[in-house]
Every structure is written in structure tokens, then in C-alpha cells.
Write a structure and sequence with these properties.
endopeptidase fold (from Nostoc punctiforme); 5-stranded antiparallel β-sheet; two-stranded antiparallel sheet; 22% helix; CHAP domain-containing protein
């Protein structure tokens, strides 16, 4: 197995597998939109976007433990402007979780025409810039757009996984 040249030094080895990105994106967006209005991903935005790709496509992707950490890991690949469909869209967002205040960040999955699907108070669709107008719970700041990361970087090091086992 090869180590990717930009793979973070996490001790994980990169698995080389072929990716059918159009199918992955269609499956992820379908999986995500089936959950519109659901509240079980509140404060779990990273888990939501990862699950959209992973569970809909029987793959496992690797990032950080929370949205801001993942954004930091992907920062060299961060782009500005209207996000490409299938990309992860990152925001800085300070707040308190389990008594700890920090920039936990926020992340969404890009759809088309600048729309993103994400878990906020519920799973919802918003324009990627309109997320900056969302009001969080007590002690939370409004999200600030950071940029987007292309699907090719998200899938670096991905491997097959059967989530039903």
C-alpha cells in the first residue's frame, strides 16, 4: 500500500481503490435528502456528511473528530467560491459542547446551484452562503464560511466497508 503524498501523518495507510464519483454523489445526496427534517444529527454535522457518503456507498472515509478539525486537515485543498457538487463545505463556528467551548466548525454536503444539505437543528437544505445567517443554540456564534474541499480529497485513503456488519 502507498502513502499518499498529502495524506496527513495519522498512521493510517492509504488504500487504493477506484471511485465512481458520480454514483457516490448521487447516492450520498439521495441518502441525505431522505433524512430532511430529522433531528438525530443535531451537533453531529460531520457525522451526517460522512454517513451520507459512507453508508450510501459502502465505503469508509477519514477525517478529523469534528468539523473544524477536518477543515484543518483538508486546509491545503480548501477552495473558495460556489462549491462543486459532492464537495464538503466548511465553516468556522464557535460554541459549547459538553462544557467545552471552541471552534467546533460546521460542515455541509454540496448539492447543485450553491445549495448544501447539512445537519443544524435538523437536517436541512440552505444556500452555502445563507448558512452564515443561521442562529445556533445559546452560546453559539453564527457560522463563517471557510471554503470547500473537492470530493477527490475527501476520498483520499477511502476503503470499502460493509456498514451492516
Amino acid at each position: 500500500m502507498n502513502k499518499g503524498s498529502d495524506w496527513p501523518n495519522t498512521g493510517r495507510e492509504e488504500y487504493t481503490m477506484q471511485h465512481d464519483y458520480p454514483t457516490y454523489i448521487d447516492n450520498a445526496i439521495s441518502w441525505a435528502t431522505q433524512r430532511l427534517g430529522a433531528t438525530d444529527y443535531t451537533t453531529l454535522c460531520l457525522a451526517f456528511v460522512e454517513d451520507a457518503y459512507e453508508r450510501a456507498n459502502s465505503v469508509e472515509i477519514f477525517a478529523g473528530d469534528f468539523a473544524a478539525e477536518s477543515g484543518d486537515i483538508y486546509s491545503e485543498h480548501m477552495r473558495d467560491g460556489v462549491p462543486e457538487i459532492g464537495s464538503f463545505v466548511f465553516y468556522d463556528c464557535d460554541g459549547v459542547i459538553e462544557g467545552k467551548e471552541r471552534n467546533w466548525g460546521h460542515v455541509a454536503l454540496a448539492m447543485s446551484n450553491g445549495d448544501v444539505i447539512h445537519a443544524w437543528d435538523k437536517v436541512r437544505v440552505d444556500n452555502y452562503l445563507d448558512i452564515e445567517n443561521l442562529v445556533g443554540g445559546p452560546g453559539w456564534a453564527r457560522p463563517t464560511y471557510r471554503g470547500w474541499v473537492p470530493k477527490e480529497r475527501i476520498f483520499l485513503g477511502a476503503r470499502p466497508r460493509d456498514w451492516d456488519l
